[in-house]
Amino acid sequence: MWSVWKVCSSPVSYVLVHSPDLSPTALPRSMLARDKSLESYEACRQLTAEYSKTFYFASLLFPMEKRRAIWAIYAWCRRTDELVDSLDFKADPRMLDRWQERLDKIFGGGGEDVYDLALADAVRNFPLEIRPFLDMIEGMRMDLTQARYENWEELHTYCYRVAGTVGLMSCAVMGLVDDCPEARRRAVALGVAKQMTNILRDVGEDARRGRIYLPLEDLRKFGYSEEDLFAYVVDERWAALMEFEIARAEAIYLEAEKGIPYLIPDARWPVWASLILYRRILTKVRSNGYQNFLQRAYVPRAEKFLLLPVAWAKAQT
Ligand SMILES: CC(C)=CCC/C(C)=C/CC/C(C)=C/CC/C(C)=C/[C@@H]1[C@@H](COP(=O)(O)OP(=O)(O)O)[C@]1(C)CC/C=C(\C)CC/C=C(\C)CCC=C(C)C
Ligand SMILES: Nc1ncnc2c1ncn2[C@@H]1O[C@H](COP(=O)(O)OP(=O)(O)OP(=O)(O)O)[C@@H](O)[C@H]1O
Ligand SMILES: [Mn+2]
């Protein structure tokens, strides 16, 4: 019966075949005790599941070895992000120097806790390069010194560092049929498009932390001031500004889509799924009437499930 489902590789059969992984503990305790690295991956799985519904959901569509490596990368990225979020503005940047030294240790095969060890194992199993990890730390450093971005070029640098880098890390795990500059550029584009989506979703949250991640020159273009933003003014100027940024993000998603055929086939469905689900947040910002200061745009769970077959169909073409 199971093999029949396996032969028929549709989204429904996939979810059924892999359904044990949707249980609260994906790996049996006996296995965890036997293999230290499995225990480490299990910790990363739990962290991913706790922090991101979208990425956890998409990660379940990968074969097991890639899935685990993605959890390890997610855990490292999430902890890097949390480290900076927990620091005050202009906090001691030496925290990040220390985090960077720890990264060197991971790439040397060691680590200080289970999450580090999982990533060290992933580094052994996949051709991960240290550069994107270092660039992400640089992106987090920007958050300690900068709370405004003058233009798109500046913001793009930030988006590459904190999110485009994830695209490069992911490619090393997922595998490219042709590892060419275009494929890498498009992988970076997907990270940048998601970061722009994240910025548009979280404008209010960022404002409460005194931050504006929208290019100031764009605010000026629409006659919308920083004071308007901190007063949560939603009017036709704000709507026009939001539409402008949404269009920019959507154009980058289109560039990224063209990179998916460069991925090894078993990675295409999860990447399409994560692209479609995350891009959908933009539609929600719009349908919320651009009320993104106090209202969080999100894709309900049922809708996420309904979009899975759409992603699967895209991945077959
Ligand atoms: C497909 C898949 C499952 C990908 C990998 C998941 C992964 C390792 C994600 C790490 C994300 C992370 C914690 C990054 C730290 C910085 C940060 C927070 C970036 C933002 C992510 C969104 O997180 P969230 O909405 O939870 O944010 P909050 O903290 O809750 O506000 C980002 C928007 C960046 C995400 C970027 C990616 C997942 C890169 C996508 C690119 C690819 C998978 C490459 C595909 C390849 C080709 C050739 C197209
Ligand atoms: N364990 C946690 N501790 C602190 N914050 C969390 C935790 N889990 C989730 N969050 C945060 O709670 C908020 C609610 O998240 P939301 O409902 O949008 O889902 P999500 O898991 O963040 O999905 P997505 O992957 O699409 O970002 C987010 O800001 C998320 O980062
Ligand atoms: Mn989140």
UniProtKB/TrEMBL annotation:
What's the protein here called? 15-cis-phytoene synthase
Biological process (GO), any one: carotenoid biosynthetic process
Q: Could you tell me the superkingdom of the organism this chain comes from?
A: Bacteria
**PROSITE patterns in the record:** SQUALEN_PHYTOEN_SYN_1, SQUALEN_PHYTOEN_SYN_2
Question: A GO molecular function for this record?
Answer: squalene synthase [NAD(P)H] activity
Pathway-wise, it operates in: Carotenoid biosynthesis
Q: Name one Pfam family in it.
A: SQS_PSY
Q: Which UniProt keywords apply?
A: Carotenoid biosynthesis, Transferase
Question: Gene3D superfamilies given for it?
Answer: Farnesyl Diphosphate Synthase
Record flagged with keyword Secreted? no
Catalysed reactions listed for this entry: 2 (2E,6E,10E)-geranylgeranyl diphosphate = 15-cis-phytoene + 2 diphosphate
Q: Any idea of its EC number?
A: 2.5.1.32
| Keyword presence, Glycoprotein | no
Q: Name the family the entry cites.
A: Belongs to the phytoene/squalene synthase family.
